[in-house]
Design a protein that fits this description.
alpha+beta, 3-stranded antiparallel sheet, 3 strands
């Protein structure tokens, strides 16, 4: 005659073993989601600067102001970090600020991850930040 063994504690032990792994995956997904949102906000801000620069290619201060206004009014609410003027690069890939040529506005910044230590060192910087870039090109009128 065999006795029936109780398996009530087995599920609890399995859950306790898997919970840390599931939490780490959840945290990584949340951090990457924030980084993707930051990249979208940086790209939108660069596009707004390029749009303004297409009409006023030599007004670099105005271009930077447009980028900063767009990002800091929308992106800061999403990402929690502000963009600085030194993070904005303005260039002319065709060589000159002449009608028919392109203006390129690029933004790049180090995005602080909540749990940067969980990511491989080739993916993030040593300080746990992720370099995020956004850029836009438009034809000068």
């Amino acid at each position: 005659m065999t006795t029936q063994r109780s398996h009530k504690g087995q599920s609890l032990v399995e859950f306790a073993l898997l919970l840390p792994i599931l939490l780490i995956i959840l945290v990584i997904v949340a951090d990457l989601s924030r980084a993707i949102a930051a990249r979208v906000c940086l790209s939108n801000a660069a596009r707004e600067g390029a749009r303004y620069g297409a009409n006023h290619p030599l007004d670099w201060g105005g271009i930077r102001n447009r980028v900063l206004l767009e990002y800091n009014d929308t992106g800061m609410r999403v990402t929690g970090m502000s963009l600085r003027a030194e993070d904005i690069l303005i260039s002319f890939p065709s060589g000159a600020a002449a009608p028919g040529n392109y203006i390129r506005v690029a933004t790049r910044t180090n995005f602080p991850l909540w749990f940067g230590t969980f990511f491989p060192t080739g993916f993030v910087q040593e300080d746990g930040t992720l370099l995020i870039e956004g850029a836009a090109e438009m034809v000068i009128f």
